[in-house]
Design goal:
The chain is mostly helical. It is 34% helix and 0% strand. It has three helices and no strands.
C-alpha cells in the first residue's frame, strides 16, 4: 500500500480542512483542481449539501473472470461498498 505525504491545500486563510478531509481536500478544495471538481459535481458529491467539504472515499477493484485467483474480487469490492454506505448512514444519525 502506498502512502502519500499530506500536501498543503492552497494557502487560503478562509479555508478550513478537517483532519478526515486532509487528502481529498487536495482535489475538492484547491482552485487549481477545477477539472476534478467538475467531475465530482457531476456525481452525487455535488448534489449533497457540503459534499465537496466532506472526505471522499474511493473503492476500486481489479478483477478478471478468466483467472480463478481474482474472480472473487468484484464480490469483495461490492461488500466493501455496501459496508461503507451503511457506515456512512450510521454516522449521519
Amino acid at each position: 500500500m502506498a502512502t502519500y505525504p499530506n500536501p498543503d491545500p492552497d494557502p487560503d486563510p478562509n479555508l478550513v480542512t478537517s483532519q478526515m478531509n486532509r487528502y481529498s481536500s487536495v482535489i475538492t478544495q484547491r482552485k487549481s483542481q477545477g477539472a476534478g471538481q467538475a467531475q465530482l459535481y457531476a456525481t452525487d458529491v455535488g448534489k449533497i449539501a457540503g459534499g465537496m467539504k466532506k472526505p471522499q472515499v474511493g473503492i476500486s477493484s481489479v478483477w478478471y473472470e478468466g483467472n480463478p485467483c481474482n474472480m472473487h474480487l468484484l464480490d469483495v469490492a461490492g461488500c466493501v461498498k455496501t459496508s461503507v454506505q451503511v457506515s456512512r448512514r450510521e454516522l449521519a444519525t
